[in-house]
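U., I forgot to send this yesterday:
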Amino acid sequence: MTNLVKKILNEQKISIPEVKEILDKVSERMQKLNTPIDPFTEATYEYCQNFSKMPADVARNIINMLKEEYGMDDSHAIQIVNIDPRFPQEVRVILEKDPVLRALSDEDIIVMIQKVKDYQ
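Result:
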């Protein structure tokens, strides 16, 4: 039996919709090869199908907007995409540990939520 060593080529944080997009492609390839997906990948894929709240391209656009307009880091922007908040309190929970973002007013957060909705 050969030992398959996998080399990590790139590491980056991505949103649930982006993971779903990748696993959609993996699933298609595996079906074409008539090969079952391993249980861990299958469970991850099912989770993404259940909790992905928008298409991956929309998620990427929202993440970029949040980073550019609000100075968010990847982690905060991805959390907002994953949760797709509807209320300022949901955003506050995400931003509470960042001293700059924590200072956003409720009005600013309402505008942010509306911008996220507008992208969808």
